[in-house]
Design brief:
By secondary structure, the chain is of the alpha/beta class. Helix content is 41%, strand content 18%. The chain folds into 2 domains: 4-151 and 362-375, Rossmann fold (3-Layer(aba) Sandwich); 156-359, Rossmann fold (3-Layer(aba) Sandwich), CATH 3.40.50.2000. A hairpin with a 5-residue loop joins β7 (127-129) and β8. Belongs to the glycosyltransferase 104 family.
Length: 377
């Protein structure tokens, strides 16, 4: 059944929130034939993900999704059948009033941040009565059948496997980004938050075989990279070599192109939520830079995921993986675990594929949202 949806996104940390909601909105339209309005408070950030967007337009349509600037005259806006409050962003007060006045009250969903912690399953889909008399349901993405699943387009894994089985397609894609890879060169992507200890991680790659090409999309880690390289500036297209390590800065690319970049690499450094999930669907080894929180609450979330992800790994490799992820997120030198992990990338790749297959057994997030809306009438 086609329903109308209002999806609200407040851009908090660069591209994570808008990245998730933009993917979700497109999938609701393309695969589930829903009518979606995506409300965004920062159109400049949105335009980085959707370059054809008009940052001056209060209303426009992209990929079948109606994009609305958050600064609207809310008294004239009729709420949709389903209202999604992404990541606890607070809805406009006048819009909440309009929701309560609607003849048929909308289904109100709070789409929560992703977590592997055990308590998530117990809170998933719980209602909370609000001051305006409506119930708001908490909807948690997650990694098992008792949660809302992860964003995954219907043909994503088939497209990824076909691409990874086609060396010519891989070469053509990389060359389109200006990347010329040597026959024995290891590819590593790095999309992370600030990393003061970056030099301790890169120095071993200067001396190691095989040669490594580090692909760094424009972002928050560039100042740390620039300081380690000792250069005055780093821009998209720049390429700097130190020993056996070549650092190449990439332009900011579309979500589809970024997905494909992850498919190309032997190891992916990712951050936040959106790129973290896409790296898992890439079925390649990864290192996660989790969004830092006060009192190191993020480290508990990191450990919860590691407890799940390391199941089935050989104990020594699991220890190395845990050590590397912890050190990266604490901005510490990696120690010997880093070189040990790099030597075991084939085993990690096989594990990543098994993990990906297991995750894909649960319904994806968009499908679960649509099914939940249908059950609520």
């Amino acid at each position: 059944m086609a329903r109308s949806w209002d999806v609200f996104c407040a851009v908090v940390d660069n591209f994570g929130d808008i990245g998730v909601t933009w993917r979700l909105a497109r999938q609701l339209v393309a695969e589930h034939h829903q009518q979606v309005r995506l409300w965004v408070d920062d159109l400049d950030a949105f335009a980085r993900l959707c370059p054809q967007a008009d940052v001056r337009a209060s209303r426009q349509t992209q990929a079948g999704v109606e994009i609305r600037h958050w600064e609207a005259q809310w008294e004239s806006v009729e709420p949709a059948d389903v209202v999604v409050e992404a990541f606890a962003c607070r809805l406009p007060a006048d819009f909440e009033v309009a929701m309560a006045r609607r003849a048929v009250p909308p289904l109100w969903l709070n789409l929560e941040y992703l977590s592997a912690e055990g308590w998530v399953a117990g809170c998933h889909r719980l209602p909370s009565l609000q001051p305006n008399g409506l119930s708001k349901y908490f909807f948690f993405p997650g990694f098992d059948a008792d949660t809302g699943g992860l964003l995954r387009e219907r043909e994503l894994l088939a497209r990824r496997r076909a691409f990874q089985a086609d060396p010519l397609a891989r070469r053509a894609f990389l060359q389109g980004l200006g990347i010329d890879v040597a026959a024995n060169e290891r590819l590593v992507s790095l999309f992370s938050y600030e990393q003061p200890a970056l030099g301790d991680w890169l120095q071993p790659l200067v001396d190691q075989q095989p040669p490594t090409r580090l692909l760094v999309p424009e972002g928050r880690v560039l100042p740390d990279l620039k300081a380690w390289l000792g250069v005055d500036a780093l821009r998209a297209g720049d390429c700097v070599t130190r020993g056996r390590l070549t650092v190449q800065v990439l332009p900011f690319v579309s979500q589809a192109a970024y997905d494909t970049l992850l498919w190309c690499c032997d190891l992916n450094g990712v951050r936040g939520e959106d790129s973290f999930v896409r790296a898992q669907w890439a079925s390649e080894p990864l290192i996660w830079h989790i969004y830092p929180q006060d009192d190191e609450a993020h480290m508990h979330k990191l450990e919860a995921f590691l407890d799940r992800f390391c199941v089935g790994l050989e104990p020594g490799l699991a220890d190395d993986l845990r050590g590397v992820w912890r050190a990266w997120n604490r901005a510490e030198a990696p120690g010997p675990a880093w070189s040990a992990l790099l030597a075991q990338l084939p085993a990690l790749r096989a594990h990543a594929e098994r993990w990906c297959v297991a995750l894909a057994e649960q319904d994806d997030l968009a499908s679960q949202l649509v099914a939940f809306a249908a059950r609520q009438g």
